[in-house]
């Protein structure tokens, strides 16, 4: 016992005598005590600040708030409210812990509004570009029914699923996009730096353009276009992109483009499944939160990204207002909503369990989407290998064939 006390005393003396250790602890303390000014939108004014502060505020205020940020916020808010912590105090605490500075400012402003007497949903509705109608509606329903913590847990789970699905979709698209980008960069580099040297060598060897293989002549044309008219190519690319953006941002063009995406081979089926999954899961959680079916359909329709599905949900909403059931309104659109979905909805409506049925359908569709993504990835891999192989074969034919011809000419 005395030995342990002596050992502990020696260790404490070593730490106390260590200037470096004391300095580090002081630095850590200062980091924790570093003052940070709370920014309340509508109250904060940076007009008297320096240019650097204004520029930094601009970058923060235009930074992206991700689904993961919101999902974590709603989950932790649900935990804290469930533990009995007042909503305002919970929002302030989460604002202090937020890593995303833009989201921190938003939460500080929401807490400020709640302090002034507004409800959480009303304070959130000020930021309709961050909190969408679905999220605000669920929070408002939870406040009205007294089940705010339960609704927040469900909302957090919904956002988690949406975030995971988005990451999986991007993960499936990264591989082919990366391969195509690398091929374009390699091809451009060869045309600009390597191919001109080959052409000079062929000219010195006395091989004229008419004797060159078709693949070589094709690359010669591309090389001339890339090196001599690169600015025209860029203008054409940007012009086409601008016209395309104007078209898809118009009312008719947006619907036509979204319809075209649904018709794409392989990818179109995936898009339809994702849209059905979003519709079913969002409608289920809204109905389960206690919102009327008409309000739930309206919010769900506005939350969908595909314009064709938006139009169909609006049509369903109009028919439900006239007294029709959701399942009856969906029967004429089996391409958008498969028959089994309609039948399960009919069962849910007949048994007054739309929310429960929607949850089961959403789980099933999530598994189907996961399986489809695996199949899609397995298809992309051999296709990309084939594309790379054709690219390499074209370059080999275009470059090696005239070199062999040059060798035979020199040998003669």
What is the third-level CATH name, the topology of the largest domain?
Answer: Receptor-associated Protein
Q: What is the tally of beta strands?
A: 0
> Given the C-alpha coordinates, what overall shape results?
globular
CATH class (first level) name of the largest domain = Mainly Alpha
Structural class: mainly alpha
Report how far the terminal alpha carbons are from each other. 99 Å
CATH H-level superfamily title of the largest domain: Type II secretion system (T2SS), domain F
Low-confidence stretches: none
Number of helices: 18
**How many strands, which pairing sense, and closed or not: the largest β-sheet?**
none
Helix and strand succession?
HHHHHHHHHHHHHHHHHH
Strand content: under 5%
Radius of gyration: 31 Å
The number of domains = 2
Mean pLDDT: 81
Q: State the share of residues found in helices, binned by percent.
A: over 70%
Task: Just name the CATH architecture of the largest domain.
Answer: Up-down Bundle
What does this structure look like?
By secondary structure, the chain is an all-alpha fold. The chain has two domains: 61-131, no CATH class; 158-412, Up-down Bundle (Receptor-associated Protein), CATH 1.20.81.30. Helices cover 80% and strands 0% of the residues. The protein has 18 helices and no strands. The chain has helices at 2-17, 19-32, 51-61, 67-82, 87-97, 101-115, 120-125, 133-145, 148-204, 214-228, 230-249, 251-263, 267-288, 293-303, 307-321, 326-330, 339-350, 354-411. Helix 11 crosses helix 12 (251-263), helix 13 (267-288) runs antiparallel to helix 14 (293-303) and helix 14 (293-303) runs antiparallel to helix 15. The longest helix is centred in the C-terminal third of the chain and has 58 residues, at 354-411. The radius of gyration is 31 Å and the shape is globular. The N and C termini lie far apart (99 Å). The model has no long low-confidence stretch (mean pLDDT 81).
